[in-house]
Amino acid sequence: MITAASLAALAMACALGSWRFTTARWTSRAPRLAIILWQSLGLAWGLATTGAMLAYAVEPYKVSVLPGLIAFARGEAPLEPWDALHVLAMIAGITSLAVLVVVLVTAGVQTLRARRRHRVLLALIARDDPGVPGVRVLDHPGATAYCVPGLRSQVVVSEGALKLLSEDELAAVLAHEAAHVRERHDLVLLPFAALRRALPWSKVVADAHAQVELLIEMAADDRARRYCSPRRLATALLRFGTAGAMPTPNGMIGVHAHDVMARVDRLIKPGPELATSVRYGFITLSVTLLTAAPFLWVIQL
User: Fold this and answer.
1) What secondary structure letter does DSSP report for 145?
2) φ, ψ of residue 155 in degrees (nearest 5)
3) Residue 71 confidence (pLDDT) above 70
């Protein structure tokens, strides 16, 4: 019972933390750190929520979650008789865990299929351009730039984007897209997109997904400005925003027109970085969240 109560308290803390985190103002000063904390909150919440139900369900076995589930799967008799609440908790816990896993796997499979189809399409309609080596060019008047993540990643720009941007602005945009590929932001975003499919009615989940989308853009902006002028990247974002950039194909990561001014402001007038002590504090919190739920799954309190 103590394990179930601890996991329930951890789940509530993660839910409350996520709700407060959606309005945090420091995240733009350390987007990578904020992404890690979001990942920690999401994983800990999922494990703690399902673990609380399963811990209560296996309480008659007088063991923690994982050993109790193993005993249940083997058909071993519990030390105490089952009652209706324990049975319902087992059904709810296994169902919730299965839904989360199935939604995540389904989202991953659908994304991989979309990318595979898009690569086939690009092979037919895109071309190489000696002016932008290593980049696939679409003969389309609309402005777009995006990456196709994966083992065979590609960066794609349209003819409209080539005409819209100066040489320096184009280099900044390509550096931004290369940052998405290098840091595998598609894998960062996938669990949050899957969770949003599983809980479409949750405002906190929708806000978290939007926050992570913005944070990966800021993280890519930060890496890109190591290789280009921040002002050139800012002007490129403004050009895409005013020109009405084409929507990014499903499963890809591209230039987003939303929250352009927030990104432009931090590129032109970057704020002070977080103090080292604050960074270590958030890292410690992330590590604690990532270890607490799995620890409670296997340790009987």
Assistant:
1) E
2) -110, 130
3) yes
| Encoded tokens for 253 | 């990561």
How high is the pLDDT of residue 74? 85
Output the pTM of the full model: 0.87
Domain spans of the chain, in order of start: 127-270
- Ranking 74-83, 140-149, 201-210, 224-233 by mean pLDDT, the lowest is 74-83
SS3 147: strand
- Residue 55 carries which DSSP code? H
| b/e per residue 140-179 (b: at least 16 CB within 10 A) | eeebbbbbbbbeebbbbbbbbbbebbeeebbbbbbbbbbb
Residue 141: DSSP 8-state: S
Q: Name the nearest CA neighbour of 140 among 164, 118, 114.
A: 164
Neighbouring C-alpha atoms within 13 Å toward the C-beta of 109: 6
CB 132 within 8 A of CB 172: no
Phi, psi angles (nearest 5°) of residue 255 = -70, 125
Number of H helices, E strands in the chain: 11, 5
CB count, 10 Å around CB of 213?
18
Q: Write down the H helix ranges in 83-202.
A: 84-125, 159-164, 167-182, 185-198
